[in-house]
Amino acid sequence: xxxxxxxxxxxxxxxxxxxxxxxxxxxxxxxxxxxxxxxxxxxx
Length: 44
What we know:
Blueprint: H1 3-10, H2 20-43
């Protein structure tokens, strides 16, 4: 199970009928976090 799948599993908004736009927004936020994490570890 990927991090994104796990996040979606535990996300309070993941009820049947969740909007695709909201799902995309979640995925985008996740990518921003992952990028920031990589940038941070590159500077350490």
